[in-house]
Design a protein that fits this description.
By secondary structure, the protein is mainly α. The chain is 88% helix and 0% strand. Keywords: Cytoplasm, Exonuclease, Hydrolase, Nuclease.
Amino acid sequence: MKKPRATDRSADVWQYEQAVAEIEATIQQIEAGELSLAATLEQFTQAAEQLQQCKRFLAQKQQQVDLLIEALTTDEMSESL
């Protein structure tokens, strides 16, 4: 398995953080009533798509963390034998 470079990880985090910031800005605009109905629906649709991307990103990162924890646990168990 190819090990990700530090720059790859920074890019992922930046994109995730940017998506979250955009979603929050959209929510603020919708709550403030700053958008027309058509614009609200369009922004809501985009925010929902971004949320799905964030969810997939977080699920992937959780899987990576789980694998690392499993590897550490396995290493600890083999060392104790």
